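Sample entry (72 residues):
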Amino acid sequence: MQATAFTFDPGTREGSVLLDDGTPVPFDAAAFDSGGLRLLRAGQRVRIRTEGEGAARRVVFVTLQTYPDPGA
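Predicted structure, serialized as tokens:
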């Protein structure tokens, strides 16, 4: 699934993405670390995997579109 990076805190490595319908979905440091990134800027297109539905939905993997997803 694709999304757009919305927020990112390099200190905690946590942030959020916006789905294409505008829904914000948070990610934690574990999701960020799983993608092999060092930094993320608002507006970057990213590839994500999510778990859960509705308000419980969260990102469990985030990386750039050009990076591989080993879990796919």
